[in-house]
Write a structure and sequence with these properties.
Alpha-Beta Plaits, 32% strand, 95 residues, 3 helices, 37% helix, alpha+beta, four-stranded antiparallel β-sheet, 4 strands, globular
Length: 95
C-alpha cells in the first residue's frame, strides 16, 4: 500500500502564534502516526512563486494522512493558526 503525505507551503507572518499551532498540531500528528520528513529548513525557489516554508508529513497510508488533515485534533490546531500566516495544504498518495 502506498504511503500518504500531507504537503504544506506556508508564509508565516506571526512566528509566536505559528509556534502555538505547530505545538498543538503534534497531538494529531502523533495520533495518526505522522512523521515529519521536511519541516521548514533551507529552501531555494527555482521556479514559480514558491513559499518560504515547506512541510512534508509522511503517513503509513493516504487514509491515515487524510484522517490527520480532517481530524478534530488538527481542527483545534488550525484554529490557533488564524492570523499567523497563510498556508496551502494538500493530501497526496505516494507511489
Amino acid at each position: 500500500m502506498p504511503k500518504g503525505y500531507v504537503i504544506a507551503h506556508a508564509e508565516v507572518t506571526n512566528p509566536e502564534k505559528w509556534a502555538e499551532y505547530v505545538a498543538a498540531s503534534k497531538v494529531a500528528l502523533d495520533k495518526y502516526g505522522g512523521k515529519p520528513i521536511v519541516r521548514g529548513g533551507r529552501c531555494e525557489i527555482t521556479e514559480g512563486k514558491g513559499c518560504p516554508r515547506n512541510v512534508i508529513l509522511e503517513f503509513a497510508s493516504y487514509d491515515d494522512a487524510r484522517a490527520y488533515a480532517f481530524s478534530p485534533e488538527y481542527a483545534k490546531a488550525k484554529a490557533l493558526r488564524q492570523g499567523a500566516g497563510v498556508i496551502d495544504i494538500v493530501v497526496v498518495e505516494g507511489v
